[in-house]
Amino acid sequence: MNPDFLNRIQSYIPNEMDDFLSSLDRPMYRGLRVNPQKWKKPKLSLKRAPFSENEYYVDEALGNHPYHLAGLFYLQEPSASSAVEILDVQPDDVVLDLCAAPGGKSTQIASKLDTGFLVANEYDSKRARILLSNMERMGIEHMMVLNNDPSQLVTKFARCFDRILVDAPCSGEGMMKKHDEAMDQWSVEHIQFCAKRQKQILESAYQLLKGNGTMVYSTCTYAKEENEDVIQWFLDTYPDMELIDPGVSFGRSGFIKNTIRIFPMDKGEGHFVAKLHKKSGATNRLPVQKSMPIDAITKEFFIEQLGFVPKYHEMQKDKIYVMDHSFIQTKGLHCLRQGIFAGERIKKRFEPAHAFYMNAKWIDTYKNRTNLSLEEIDAFMHGLEIEHPSQKGYIAVCVDGYPFGFGKSDGKHIKNKIPKGLRLLPNSHIKRRCL
Length: 435
Ligand SMILES: C[S@@+](CC[C@H](N)C(=O)[O-])C[C@H]1O[C@@H](n2cnc3c(N)ncnc32)[C@H](O)[C@@H]1O
Prior knowledge:
Bound molecules: S-adenosylmethionine
CATH class of the largest domain: Alpha Beta
GO biological process, one term: RNA methylation
Strand content: 25-35%
CATH topology of the largest domain: Rossmann fold
Structural class: alpha+beta
CATH superfamily of the largest domain: Vaccinia Virus protein VP39
Domain SAM-dependent MTase RsmB/NOP-type: 1-279
GO molecular function, one term: RNA binding
Organism: Absicoccus porci
Protein name: SAM-dependent MTase RsmB/NOP-type domain-containing protein
Number of strands: 22
CATH architecture of the largest domain: 3-Layer(aba) Sandwich
């Protein structure tokens, strides 16, 4: 273990070093956050985590649980849910998550929105696609996924956001364990590099925040240079920003008032969170665009599957996107998705997309649906066609009434429509454990 790292930690928590050292030997805390928009009344025998209202401790991998595939929960290190709890998102807020992949915090923000809107931005293109996949799995509608450098957002969306989360790329000390490769690569130079990048990201975030808006800055590292020192620099640079009370009882106070630190002794792997308020300044609205007309065949599909036609539409070539919120103008930005990808017009028919059947708002709305057994779910998630009598046509396949995808039924068999990238590998299987 790097002695410089240990000396620095000793300087932060001089009386708790033994506890910290023993925490490095035990497995990471694992967490499960319920998606309240899909899983409305979960009865769980799991222990609640103190960091947010829907977070629980788990002690095994649950990625192949059918409820995970259906987007009923997100797997996340428990203390990572603290930042969004502190952001205190309101149902009608316009929120920006500036460093969003893989989407733990974005999906948590979205679970608090109703009429509001979420812009989830990720700098790294591969990670942005993972973010989109998680947003789809959790069934989020009022959102867009961007893949831009934070500074590129400023020309389009300056002063547009009520709340901004900057969950900054950091040296990740809170996510390292004693034997990790990451621990061997730890260095003060890397910490300094991260601090410089964090300041650049905060400069953009400042310009994107509305007057009277709220910003939360968080990292999963212990390094003071990336936490309190970055915040002090931000306050000195922008005198109209102030630190405000995070209003929570978990964790412990950081080295400046109104900041929060979480160490493993506080029952999570490690986080730093600061809540900031912009005292004054102008506000703008996200620039909306006109809804596009859709054709009769697509309308007929919506009526047949949902019983209504979604209010706002956008068409890109033959692909159709829908939302119950105006579409936002994104010209000049790299937008991976806005709203729900409903499907594609192919010749004289409409071919639905996986995302269409994952929308949290429609979870009880899909008219044509069927429950599969665990064995059938396993076969379906491996891309197989299954023998399963059901109503003909496109059909939502469900676990206990919760859709996890769709297929096309001829009345006796369901043809598989799970996207190739989401299918299970041959040696991986659905596992249902008691939660
Ligand atoms: C701590 S992670 C975000 C985790 C995410 N908030 C979640 O809860 O799932 C930080 C993210 O910042 C991204 N990033 C890297 N360089 C960046 C930059 N220059 N500006 C903005 N984000 C950057 C990383 O790719 C990474 O996905």
